[in-house]
Design brief:
Elements (H helix, E strand, L loop, with lengths): L1 H8 L15 H7 L24 H20 L13 H4 L8 H109 L6 H11 L24 H12 L10 E9 L2 E8 L11 E7 L11 E6 L3 E4 L8 E7 L10 E3 L15 E4 L4 E4 L5 E4 L9 E9 L9 E5 L14 E5 L3 E4 L2 E6 L8 E8 L4 E8 L2 E8 L5 E6 L6 E4 L1
Antiparallel strand pairs: 1-2, 2-5, 3-4, 3-6, 6-7, 8-9, 9-20, 10-19, 11-16, 11-20, 12-13, 12-19, 13-14, 14-15, 16-17, 17-18
């Protein structure tokens, strides 16, 4: 028995030091500080290239070599291209030492023409210098954009990889310690049994060495304690222990991720679409663009116009929001703070297609507003909201002519009377009269409460939905020719279009009757 106890006591229990008491979270974080991995630049990709084909990099290097050779041909000075046949002065001037007036004038004219020609060519050279510099600047900007984009991607990917690695390492530590808990309990039991056995031996040896101390009570205790000797706690076999394992991701998953990364981004010689014109509008902008790359003209494209407040030149900024999506090559950007910069860009809705150059612009034209002189209406919200104050029918006009070609205006109805008649409604007019103006006359386009449309006093066949609370009526106009506007009127997914011969700019107007039954906002 003594040999067994000695063997158990001499077991290596060095792993006890691994189980330390951690008092707080900071100590735990400090103890399990995991050093992040860093990329190995010499590591080859797991995606192998076909040995019978050139890699993409080799193809690009071949193209670059050919391009540089071709460019160098034009960099060399080729004398034969600039040589001018030398005149045989001796053969020409042997007969006369003085030129005739006619010949002299012709020569002077030639000299002047050539000098003017040289001046024009010098301007061309300056333009070419500017073009060279533009391409150089564009290349540097693109290289900076490439580096910034992929550095950000690399940082994000490395962060996520190390984050996942840390999670797996910590999870491994948890499984390790959870697996050690029953082993530690078993160890404590074995140690307790050893201590009990050693106590029995000590008591027995003491009685043998001092027989005069023998008594029945002490001997009974030794007998009772020795009865428990022989109970060995069960220690799990090796195959019963938890087997902490790491399920490696499949190679196909890793190859799919790398394949996706290998296709990120593209280089375009020209941006497919560019903004060509930006015009100020009341609290808004009128934006035009066109396709610059002929490859995209074969079929109809969907354009996306994006806006960011302030001067935002970073193409990856999250500040951009979509303000238009459609097939037209123009749009209105509305509800822009006056005299505040905004950044606009346009793109074609397709994968790996570059966006246009960023345009920082602003509008100095204040928002649409109503006149303040009509006492039958209360004007609030910086002149944009009108509320009826009396039961007298009255016509309210805008604060001056504010609507023209390439403009858009929206009437939003906040309160609507269910008893609205066809002599009430909204309108665009050229020559505003007084508050008694019926709006059903020449140079007026009126939409009544019941959805009837009157142009120059004549009722049209088409009708719009009846005005109701929360509804919007949007009117846009474009110049068809010098004298005619093409006007679009939209309400609740219904649209009508008319060609209207009228002078501009126009006033907008509203004509209502009932007290506190009409309230509308323009924007």
């Amino acid at each position: 028995m003594e040999q067994i106890l000695e063997a158990l006591s001499n077991q290596n229990l060095s792993d006890k030091s691994e189980i330390e008491q951690v008092d707080n979270r900071d100590e735990l974080l400090d103890r399990y500080m995991i050093k992040p991995l860093i990329p190995n630049p010499s590591k080859n990709s797991v995606i192998s290239n076909n040995g019978n084909e050139k890699t993409k990099k080799e193809e690009l290097l071949t193209r670059l070599t050919y391009t540089l050779k071709k460019l160098n041909q034009y960099e060399r000075n080729v004398d034969c291209d600039t040589n001018v046949a030398q005149l045989d002065a001796e053969g020409i001037f042997t007969q006369k030492e003085v030129l005739s007036q006619n010949v002299e004038e012709n020569i002077k004219g030639i000299i002047q023409s050539v000098q003017e020609y040289i001046t024009k060519l010098d301007y061309q050279l300056k333009d070419l210098d500017n073009a060279d510099q533009q391409i150089e600047n564009n290349m540097m900007r693109t290289l900076k954009d490439i580096d910034g984009t992929f550095q950000s991607l690399l940082d994000d990917v490395c962060y996520e990889i190390n984050k996942r690695r840390e999670e797996l390492i910590l999870e491994t530590e948890i499984h390790k310690h959870e697996s050690l808990i029953p082993l530690r309990a078993c160890r404590r039991e074995v140690e307790a049994q050893i201590q009990n056995a050693q106590n029995i031996i000590s008591m027995s040896e003491n009685m043998l060495q001092h027989p005069h101390r023998y008594n029945a009570n002490r001997f009974g205790k030794i007998i009772a304690a020795s009865n428990d000797i022989g109970r060995i706690p069960a220690v799990p076999y090796s195959e019963e222990l938890p087997n902490i394992n790491f399920d490696r991701p499949l190679n196909s998953c890793k190859e799919e991720i790398i394949e996706q990364i290998s296709k990120l981004g593209c280089i375009s010689r020209t941006v497919p679409v560019q903004i060509t014109n930006i015009e100020e509008r009341p609290a808004g902008l009128f934006v035009k663009w066109h396709i610059t790359n002929p490859e995209y003209t074969a079929e109809e494209q969907t354009f996306v116009v994006e806006k960011a407040n302030g001067e935002t030149l970073d193409p990856t900024s999250c500040e951009f929001e979509t303000v238009y999506k459609g097939s037209e090559t123009f749009c209105f950007v509305r509800n822009i703070p006056v005299n505040q910069p905004v950044t606009l860009r346009v793109r074609i809705q397709a994968d790996n297609v570059a966006r246009s150059v960023h345009h920082v612009t602003r509008t100095s034209i204040p928002p649409y507003s109503w006149e303040l002189d009509n006492k039958n209406y209360m004007i609030t919200n910086n002149g944009k909201m009108a509320t009826k104050l009396t039961d007298t029918i009255s016509t309210l006009f805008s604060h001056g002519p504010q609507f023209d070609a390439n403009h858009i205006i929206e009437f939003k109805f906040l309160e609507v009377s269910p008893e609205g008649e066809d002599d009430e409604g909204i309108a665009l007019v050229y020559d505003p009269q007084d508050s008694h103006d019926t709006l059903k006359r020449k140079a007026s386009l009126m939409i009544t409460c019941r959805g009837k449309i009157f142009m120059d006093g004549d009722e049209k066949l088409m009708r719009l939905p009846r005005m109701r609370c929360g509804a919007n009526i949007m009117i846009s106009a474009f110049r068809k020719n010098a004298h005619v506007l093409r006007v679009n009127v939209e309400s609740e997914n219904k649209c009508v279009t008319y060609d209207w011969r009228v002078q501009t700019p126009l006033y907008f107007a509203a004509r209502f009757t009932e007290y506190k039954k009409w309230s509308l906002m323009i924007k």
